[in-house]
Structure formats: structure tokens, C-alpha cells
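Ticket 4471: requesting a sanity check on a complex prediction with FE2/S2 (inorganic) cluster. Repro inputs:
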Amino acid sequence: MSNMEVKFCDISFKNPLVTGSGTFGFGREYENFYDLSKLGGISTKGLTLNPKSGNKGARLYETPSGLLNSIGLENPGVDRFIREELPYMKKLGTNIIANVGGATMEDYEKAIELVSKEDVDIIELNISCPNVKSGGMMFGLDEVSTGKIVKKIRSITRKPLVVKLSPNAENIVRCAQACEAEGADGVSLVNTFKGMAIDIKSRKKVFENTYAGLSGPAIKPIALRMVHEVSKNVNIPIIGMGGIMNYKDAIEFIMAGATLVSIGTANFINPSMGEIIVNDLKAFMEKENIKSFEEIRGII
Amino acid sequence: MSNMEVKFCDISFKNPLVTGSGTFGFGREYENFYDLSKLGGISTKGLTLNPKSGNKGARLYETPSGLLNSIGLENPGVDRFIREELPYMKKLGTNIIANVGGATMEDYEKAIELVSKEDVDIIELNISCPNVKSGGMMFGLDEVSTGKIVKKIRSITRKPLVVKLSPNAENIVRCAQACEAEGADGVSLVNTFKGMAIDIKSRKKVFENTYAGLSGPAIKPIALRMVHEVSKNVNIPIIGMGGIMNYKDAIEFIMAGATLVSIGTANFINPSMGEIIVNDLKAFMEKENIKSFEEIRGII
Amino acid sequence: MGKIISNKEISPNVYLMKVGGNYKGDMGQFYMIRCDNFPLLSRPISIHNIEKDCISFLYEVKGQGTEILKNLKEDDKIILQGPYGNGFEKREGKIALIGGGMGIAPLFYTAKNLDNVDIYLGFSERSFLEKEYEGVCENLHIKIGGYITDMVDFDKYDYIYTCGPEKMMEKITEMGKDKVYVSVEKHMACGIGACLGCNCDTKNGNKKVCKDGPVFLGEDVYYE
Amino acid sequence: MGKIISNKEISPNVYLMKVGGNYKGDMGQFYMIRCDNFPLLSRPISIHNIEKDCISFLYEVKGQGTEILKNLKEDDKIILQGPYGNGFEKREGKIALIGGGMGIAPLFYTAKNLDNVDIYLGFSERSFLEKEYEGVCENLHIKIGGYITDMVDFDKYDYIYTCGPEKMMEKITEMGKDKVYVSVEKHMACGIGACLGCNCDTKNGNKKVCKDGPVFLGEDVYYE
Ligand SMILES: Cc1cc2nc3c(=O)[nH]c(=O)nc-3n(C[C@H](O)[C@H](O)[C@H](O)COP(=O)(O)OP(=O)(O)OC[C@H]3O[C@@H](n4cnc5c(N)ncnc54)[C@H](O)[C@@H]3O)c2cc1C
Ligand SMILES: Cc1cc2nc3c(=O)[nH]c(=O)nc-3n(C[C@H](O)[C@H](O)[C@H](O)COP(=O)(O)OP(=O)(O)OC[C@H]3O[C@@H](n4cnc5c(N)ncnc54)[C@H](O)[C@@H]3O)c2cc1C
Ligand SMILES: Cc1cc2nc3c(=O)[nH]c(=O)nc-3n(C[C@H](O)[C@H](O)[C@H](O)COP(=O)(O)O)c2cc1C
Ligand SMILES: Cc1cc2nc3c(=O)[nH]c(=O)nc-3n(C[C@H](O)[C@H](O)[C@H](O)COP(=O)(O)O)c2cc1C
Ligand code: FES
Ligand code: FES
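Returned C-alpha cells:
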């Protein structure tokens, strides 16, 4: 009998599939499509200390097999998350990963302090959002600043701490190593790639911020390579993501070394994608006679 | 009247479209499809001092809107290029860009010395091929090693020198700046992104080298962003490339700051693509009443 | 998964597509439509009509997604997700429906579901489906070229429902004030309120076109 | 740009597609086939037959590309680039054509262009097109399951042309030695010798399957 359960940061996940931050809200929008307790976990929309109204102008642009987004971390802020969303999420019967972003170190600290008091399973420290000007990503671009923020945050929370890494980092392996060195319990990768689009008719850039974040199947080969590289160079577990559209992609990430896998853009293609992939993963395990994902994790 | 001519490194190109190294051989394979004198230029298959037989095993893998390749710089070597290919190319009536790669600094130097004596218009120093183990890319990953090799090569050639940059570099802007500082006449970007693929049935990596290079429309939004970033930070001209599939993409790269644009993977989709895009660019200029590409270059 | 019943070009580049099945939906709602893996995102298309055993969509071919739609033939498969969004409400009183360009698409089903409506349709070059629209309203007014707003006596109506180019809807809002409800268009990824990509800036803060809209009180919307 | 004349499933997952037009090609050559922007690469498919006003392809549905082919209907458009490659040569003498699985595809047109051939076809589960192949050869031998090589008396033939799984072709080369010509399959991007992606390692060095092949002297090929 196949058992889909995996341990990640000492927490039990009923299966390795989680939904990616910013693509699943707080779950509400998907509850009518399937029973969300089927998921291994849900990563919340990126939270900041104070509410954020997000970016103006175009927020989406489709590219070949990819999606550029410039949402700009629109979110209700940590307080309202705790009051209005978390109680709902707790009833869903799946693990909650609170994704926290920020513009300044102080914001990060305060937000993490507040979230740490709550009943969330994991904190995902987002230092990789390319869509807010003075925001997250600058902390995640090199191992020195990554190490610094992880050290600080580690000192203020006892929650399992996962750091979400940027594919735009100078060297994602060294960033992951810095996370490990400073006591992070895991890393998640990748966030979106910094990309851009130009409207040649109007001769203007599509996004007010000029650059936006690229996600979807287009980035999968690169994301998979990054997960593989990181997994060979750190001992903390990985949440792998970037263009996963079906169970086959998910298995590739697991074989490359990911313990959990996350779907982002795929949720937009079909709101039931989470359930579909969980079912397909189960079927795959059975067909291939895999008893536990440990058997295939990191075998490449 | 629209004039497609552009100056690049003081050399006149009849139009901004060149074909990308490694995707156009030495032109021969395309001569039956269209009159190659229609092209602004041709960048040769990456040349190394000695002949190379390339990589074993799978060399190609299709991804959503992308192509992973692991050719491994198969080429006849500089000598045979000079003897057997260059005389043919000289007759094509288009500019010749000799793309030169290498595994050691010495190889680079010798190869460049030989090529410099020949009648090629530009030397493209390839420090960004992800597909040879001890090869080119390690020179192009950070600005220090980039600066070093460019300095050395600059001292041994008077040919216009363009450095082909890697999107896998830690910071492509700083690499470009290092090229400029050391006297390169231009930069070309991007080479392929390091990616990977796994065959979940056989539970094996697809490529013997594990990683391969991703090209095609999937990478366009990222490549375009890199060209834009670089163009805002250096004063030497740029050959822009990465996923250009039609004249619209080409115009985006020009608006982002490229002087020349190069098509790679697009040649595989339709061997006449070079001619098609040149014609379409011409039509676009006329329709939009653009007299010279200078009017729109770098306007974003 | 639906099956195409028919897919006809009714005017240059404009298609009317019928998909078999028992689909639901209110006036002004839309479906997210796709065929296969490509293009990546589904396309939002308004409900043009719902009949007993089929739903229809009226669309213009713009880019890759609609190009693929246009090539669908009888019996081909199509994926419809929906109905999504908050459409036009059923209100008492005399209502004018004003459509410009492809904005006319949702007004057919809207008219069918309302009593006492007049329809104003503005086309840039040529009109189509006049007969059909005539069958679902009291008075049909058609204008080809120029401003459709020139034809409307705003005082005659209790409500104005409009869909079309933003400039047109902005103008109508100016003229019709708080009587006007507009159907807003934004690029969408999820269609269900999860991605926050279809943001519409309103007097009541950020609204999601796919979930809070596409129909909003005209005066609430900050036009771009 | 060609137009589909017909596209029929002749056995589970195996389709015979006819495209109208005056196409050229020699036996064992192939076309690079695509429909639209997706998937990115064209698919190499052998010439199955060429008639006065049409060309046909016999293909198995494997993945995304062939899935799209399979959905094509009469009058749909398709893009054919070719003919490419060095196919089977016209040689004097008695020739055996041995096909395994979809490797049978090019052998029909090959047989049509040769005199004095016997055909051996190996299928894993069920056979198809027996009648058609019977019409273009002296003797048709069919085997379902097991090894097709068991049926062939290699001494009887001056040449052996084969196309099918690599293991089969390797075995045939072992048995038939320098009489054997094999048609090699590799993933392709350009189809014209430019990308160096379809490399085949041979005793004479690197060869491009798309340009130097797909047909090689069996003994020259290093099987994987
Ligand atoms: C709620 C809603 C209802 C709509 N109803 C209809 C309808 O009934 N009939 C009709 O013809 N059109 C309708 N549209 C517009 C239609 O969605 C676009 O024309 C279509 O998505 C264009 O897709 P494409 O692939 O042909 O064009 P592309 O330009 O290739 O599309 C690229 C991307 O931009 C998006 N996009 C492009 N134009 C628009 C647009 N105007 N609005 C939203 N997204 C766009 C696409 O969805 C896609 O993600 C509606 C839009 C919305 C938001
Ligand atoms: C010279 C030549 C002639 C061929 N003739 C025929 C034929 O007549 N009938 C037929 O059914 N098949 C033929 N094939 C195999 C056919 O090209 C593949 O089955 C097809 O490309 C699979 O595409 P897909 O999108 O369905 O599969 P996918 O697995 O989705 O394809 C993904 C990628 O892998 C490549 N690929 C997958 N399998 C093969 C393969 N076996 N050979 C080469 N590339 C592959 C595809 O071209 C594509 O680039 C031929 C191959 C070659 C090289
Ligand atoms: C619309 C959108 C919003 C996102 N918002 C966030 C966010 O708030 N915080 C975060 O860490 N990642 C965010 N991401 C990144 C995703 O969680 C994920 O890392 C990325 O999209 C790659 O995965 P995918 O290709 O499966 O989408 C967002 C992605 C998208 C497409
Ligand atoms: C099959 C293949 C071979 C390539 N070989 C080389 C090479 O020898 N030297 C080089 O500088 N770039 C090489 N490239 C990179 C291309 O020149 C180009 O930089 C890259 O493919 C991005 O452009 P594209 O998306 O238009 O293909 C190769 C690319 C491909 C796909
Ligand atoms: S389209 Fe995703 S929130 Fe509206
Ligand atoms: S497919 Fe490109 S060389 Fe053969």
C-alpha cells in the first residue's frame, strides 16, 4: 500500500502537494471546487504587517506558456489575516503555511512576531517578491543579506521557518546554504522570475513597475534545475515549485529532491487542479509500486 | 522612406536581424530556403580551437514553449572553419560574426588569435555556453572572471569584440559593465538558461550532463528584461536575443535597447524565419512611419 | 467539457459559437473558456445566450486564444469554467442596454431576462444580429460609426446597463450618473477571485472584476 | 500549408492522414509537421505514401504533438516542411523490408518504389493495413507479438531495409550484417542539419539523422 504522507520540518503532511502563496488566496475561492482537506497544505497570500492595496495598472500579462504578474502583494495585513482569515483556514483540515513579506526589516520582524503567536504550521519567509519596489526581493538577492534576515527572524520565532528563495538571486545555492546556516528549517523555491513585456503599439512598457514576475510552465526547466542544485547542497528540506502543471511535473520535482511540491499558476488553469494532482500522484504511486515518496525523493 | 540599416560597433548592418550562434550552422543548411544576403548578419556555430564532437546521449528535449539543448559545442574547430566554412560564408553577402568558445584561457586566446587574422566582421566571445563541463560559462558567471577574460582577449584582437553573456550569471548587468570597462565593443545576450529535465518513467535525468540550455519563447520575458537592464547600464551596443519568434518580439527587444536582434530557436520552427522577420520588420517600419530604428531603440 | 454544436462567422472576424449542454448563468456573467494546454490562460467570454440544451458565445477574434476558438468545428471539445461573476441585476423600471463593439455580447441574454428594455448598439463598421436583438427588446437602435450616446435620451430610463469600450462607458456614466451600471473588462488569470490580477480601482477600494464584477455601478469605477 | 483530406483512426491510437497537394519525396524521407505555435517543435513523420494529389502519413499518437494531429479534421490546415533526409536507396536485387511497430510507416512507399521486395511487419498487439501492404510487395509476412526476426531467412535477400525499435534494428544488423540498412529515430529540432541535435554516433563519426540519415548502413551505427 502506498502512503502519501510526508514529513516536512517534523510536521506531517498528508501528501506532498501544497498550493503556492498568492495563487490560492486564503482558500475561500477554491472551497466550492473541492474539499480542501485533500491538500497537503496551503500557503497563504503573501502577508505584510500593514494592509497593502497592491500595484496600479496592468497586473497580468500572458506569455508563451507563462504568466507575468505584478500584483504587488495586495493583502489585508497580518492583523486582519489573523482575525478574519486564519479562523476560517484552521477549519479546512490542512496545514497552514503563513507566507510573510515586508519592505523593511522592522516590518518583517513585527509581522513574524504576530504570526508566530498564532496557530499556523509553518512560516514561509518571502524574501523574493519581485513586484514591490522596496520589497522583499532585495533581501533575497545575495547570501549575505539572506543570511542576515534569516538570522534575525530565526531569533524571534520558534515556528518552523521556511525561506522562499528568489530565482533572481545571484546564486540560489549559496542563498539556500545561508538559510541553513542561520537555522532555517527549510527552503522553498522558486518564486517568480523577473521578466518584462512591452506593448509595441503604444510603445510603452506593460507594467507600471517595468518588471513583473514570470511563473508557469515556461519556467519549469529552470526551476527544476534550481531545486536539484539546492537539494544537492543543503540538508534542510525543500518545497519545490515553478511551473508544475500535473503530477508528472510534481514527480520530477520530487525526484530532483523536493519534499513538498507547490502549485501556483496551475490553480488558475483549473481551480480543481490541487485535487486532480493529489489523485494522480496517488495513482502513480500505486501503479509504480512506490510505498513512500522517500523512495524516489532526490534520486537524480 | 524607412531605412533598415543600423550601425553596430561602427559596422554597417543592412538590417538589425542576425541569426544566433549554434542555430544556423555556417549558413549552408539555410541557403536553399532564402537568399541569405537578406540577413543583417550570421553568427557562426560556436568555434573552439580544436574540433569538438559534442555531447553524447540526448541532445534535445522539448519543454512548454521552450527547447533544452545539450549539443556541447560540436564544431570543426577554428582551422577547418577558416579553411572550409569561412570562404563559403564570405560569399553570402552578409556580415559574419565568429562565435568563439573555449575550455581554457589558453584555448580562447589561440582561437581568437587565429580568427582575428581572418576576414570576419565581429568576434563574439562566448563565455556563456552551459553545455560543456569545463567550458565557457564559468568565465561568464561573475564580473571578475568576465572582466579578466575580456581584458586578455581585448589585448590580442583588434576586431570588434562582442561578449556573449550568460543569463545564469550572478549579475548580468555587472558582467556587461565589466565587458565595457575592459574594452569590449558590445555585448550579446542572452545565451541559454541552465535548465533540466527528468524522465520519470526511467527515473533518470534526460541529459548526461544533467543540465542543459533552455531557449525559445519560454525565456523571452526574462531575456527582454535582461536586455533592458543591461541597456540602461552600459553604453556599448547590444545584440538582443532569447525567444524572438517574430517581428513583434524583435521590436520589443529594440525598444528595450538592443541595436541588433538575433533569432536562434525560431530558425528551427521555420527555416525561412530570417527572411520572414526581415520582411515583416520592413513592413512594420513603413506602417508605423519609422524612418530609422534609432527612433525606437531603447525608448522604454 | 462541452461539445461544439456550431461556430459561425456572422460578420468579419466575429463568431457565434454554440456549445451543447445544460449550462447555467445569469445575465452579464461569463465563462472562462479554453481548449487545451495552449494558450496558458483561459479566456473570459460573456454569456451571449442560454437555451434549453446549449449556451452561446459571441466573440471577436483578437489574438491567439480566440484564433483557436474560431477554428473549432462541430463536435470539437471545449472546456467551459463558470458561470463566474456578478452580472446585471434584475431591476424594476425602464432599462436601456447600451453596447459598443463586442460589448453587445452580454446584452442579448440580459435583454431576454428583463422586461421593458430598449437596446442601443454601436458598431464601428457594420452591424450584425439586428434581427435577433430586435426579438428580445421593445426598441432596437443601431448606430454605425459615431457616438451611440447621441441616440440615447437618458431621462427616459430608470437604469442604464452598458458594456463596451471604457471611453464609452465613462461617457455614459457622466451622462446617466447613478442610473448607470457598467461591465468592466480586465485581463484575467483565475476568473474566481484568487489571483488578484483583474483589479478594478473603485470608490469602495480594490474590486475584483471576475468576482465582485464584471458589473459595477458606473460612478464607483475610476476609469483609466 | 496543406489541407487535410482525411485523418482516420485505423487501429487504436494509429492514424492515417492524407494531406492534399502535390508533394515530393523519396522512400524513407520524412516531413517536419506542425499546426500552429504549439507545441514549439515540428514533428518528424515519414512519408507513408505519395499519390497524385496527396501525401499520406501513418502515425501513432504518443504525446502532445501527435494528439494535436489526431484532432485535425477535413479542411483543417497543416504545415509540412520537407521532404528531408536521405532515405532508402533504390538498389537492384531481392530486398526484405522489415518494420516493427510504427516503423512500418515508411515501408509502404518504399515497397511501392522497389521491385522484388518482401515485407515483414511486426506488431505488438494487432495488425493493420495488411491489404494495403499486400498490394505493394511479393510476399507479406505479419507477426503479432514475439520477434519478427524469427520469420526472416536472411540468406534469401540481397538487402534488408528496416525501421522500428532500436533493439530490433540492432538484432537485424547482427543477423544481416552489411546487407542491412536501418532508419534511425532521434528527437529533432530543425530537421535540416542546423541544430546538431539529432546526432547519431557512427563508425564514421557524428552523423545527423535528419540530413545524413535517417537511413544508415546498419553496421555503421553505434546502437545505444
Ligand atoms: C468579463 C469579460 C467578458 C468578456 N466577454 C467577451 C465576449 O463576450 N466577447 C468577446 O469577443 N470578448 C469578450 N471579452 C474580451 C475577451 O476576453 C478578449 O477579447 C480575449 O480574451 C482575447 O483573447 P485572445 O487570445 O484572442 O487575445 P490576446 O491578445 O492574444 O490575449 C492575450 C491575453 O490578454 C487577455 N486579453 C486580451 N484582450 C482582453 C480584453 N479585452 N479583456 C480581457 N482580457 C483580454 C487574454 O485573455 C489573454 O490572457 C470579455 C472580457 C471579460 C473580462
Ligand atoms: C525521421 C523520423 C521519422 C518518423 N516517422 C514516424 C512515422 O511515420 N510515424 C510515427 O508515428 N512516428 C514517426 N516518428 C516518430 C515521431 O516523430 C514521434 O512519435 C513524435 O515526434 C512524437 O511526438 P509527440 O508530440 O506525440 O510526443 P511527445 O513525447 O510529446 O514529444 C515530445 C518531443 O519528443 C520528440 N519525440 C518523442 N518521441 C520521439 C521519437 N520516437 N522520435 C523522434 N522524436 C520523438 C517529439 O518530436 C517532440 O519534440 C518518426 C521519427 C523520426 C525521427
Ligand atoms: C498571481 C501570483 C501571485 C503571487 N503572489 C505571491 C506571494 O504573495 N508570495 C509569494 O511568496 N509568492 C507569490 N507568488 C509566487 C508563487 O507562489 C510561485 O512561487 C510561483 O508562481 C512559481 O510557481 P508556479 O509556476 O507554479 O506559479 C505569486 C505568483 C503568482 C502567479
Ligand atoms: C541548439 C542550440 C545550439 C546553440 N549553440 C550555441 C553556440 O554554439 N554558441 C552560442 O554562443 N550560443 C549557442 N546557442 C544559444 C543561441 O545562440 C541563443 O543565444 C539562445 O538560443 C537564445 O535565443 P533563442 O531563444 O532565440 O534560441 C545555441 C542555442 C541552441 C538552441
Ligand atoms: S482573474 Fe484572478 S482575481 Fe480576477
Ligand atoms: S534535427 Fe537539427 S540537425 Fe538534425
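Notes from triage: The CA atoms of residues 35 and 275 of chain A lie 8 Å apart. Leaving this open until the requester confirms.
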